[in-house]
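Explain this fold:

***
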Amino acid sequence: MNRIRKIKIVMLSVILISIGMFAGCGSIGGLKDGFYTAEMSEFSHGWQEYLIIQVKGGKIVSAEFNAKNESGFIKAWDNSYMKNMASVQGTYPNKYTREYVQQLIDGQKDTTVDVVTGASSSGGNFEKLVAAVLEQAAAGDSATAVIETE
């Protein structure tokens, strides 16, 4: 009976340690739960792009990719900008930012995206911002990462 009790204790210990390891690693790739932000270092054509992700259970569950002007106004909310860009480029910020975010959520750790025609500059910046927020999330560092504008 003493031997069976020791086996049960060892088995229970192994199970508890395993559960603790899985809970601590945060599932895929060791992303730590929280909010992580990266932004471009400078404004381009009056806009500064940024990316915020939320990690929960080790997975990216939501993200916001957009740009703001110096007063903090969000590019995707600018209807006149949208109309002008849509007629010239065939896309607009509220559309391509959502496409890029969906690719990130679907791919999780994939830092490359299928670039949207007419928004290739933003696509390149998005990839840099994704790499930065994933690095922040892996380290559990909630400070805003600043990406140098080329």
About this structure: The two ends are 71 Å apart (CA to CA). The first helix runs from residue 2 to 25. Residues 47 and 86 are 17 Å apart (CA to CA). The chain has four helices and four strands.
